[in-house]
Design goal:
The protein is α+β, with helices and mostly antiparallel strands. The chain contains 4 helices and 8 strands. An 8-stranded antiparallel β-sheet has the order 4-3-2-1-5-6-7-8. The longest helix is centred in the first third of the chain and has 14 residues.
């Protein structure tokens, strides 16, 4: 075996020996697509969504409100199919009820809000969740590939504000 063949063989073995954890695996569908699927299949309004690894499977965990009640779903990040649905634990905190109501009456769906933010920032939404600050409801958004990594989106107006030092 000449030196060239030995180097090629060694290179091939090195590539095959790379651990699976070091390989970057990306979802085939976006967070916006997963949210749109969950909203349309359940006839509900999403208010929180994030990517998660669930026992080695890539999923989007999405919280929605339907008929005033919270619902949690998981959407497979490769196929885009709903893989799990459950009712959220009933919490008797007033803020939870306010968040659910704000999500139901918001002028835009969460998937529309994600599209709006991605268009305005030229980034990709990695995580988005509803919260209340100063008596108003906002989506706190974590972005990838945008100048501002975290932004707030006013639920009513759609105004996007960068979060500084948060």
């Amino acid at each position: 075996m000449n030196i060239r063949n030995m180097l090629l063989t060694a290179g091939a073995v090195a590539v095959l020996a790379v651990p699976a954890a070091a390989q970057v695996v990306r979802p085939k569908i976006s967070l916006a697509q997963a949210v749109a699927t969950a909203e349309s299949e359940l006839g509900a309004r999403a208010y929180d969504a994030e990517f998660d690894m669930d026992l080695g499977d890539m999923v989007y965990e999405i919280e929605l409100v339907k008929n005033g009640k919270p619902v949690q779903v998981r959407v497979d990040a490769n196929s885009g199919r709903l893989v799990h649905q459950s009712r959220a634990i009933k919490a008797r905190l007033p803020i939870v009820g306010e968040n659910l109501k704000a999500a139901q009456i918001a002028p835009r769906t969460l998937s529309q809000t994600i599209a709006m933010v991605e268009d305005a920032t030229k980034g990709k939404v990695a995580e988005i969740g509803l919260e209340r600050r100063g008596g108003r409801h906002y989506y706190e958004v974590e972005l990838v590939g945008a100048q501002d990594r975290d932004v707030l989106v006013d639920v009513r107006t759609g105004a996007i504000t960068p979060l500084i030092g948060d």
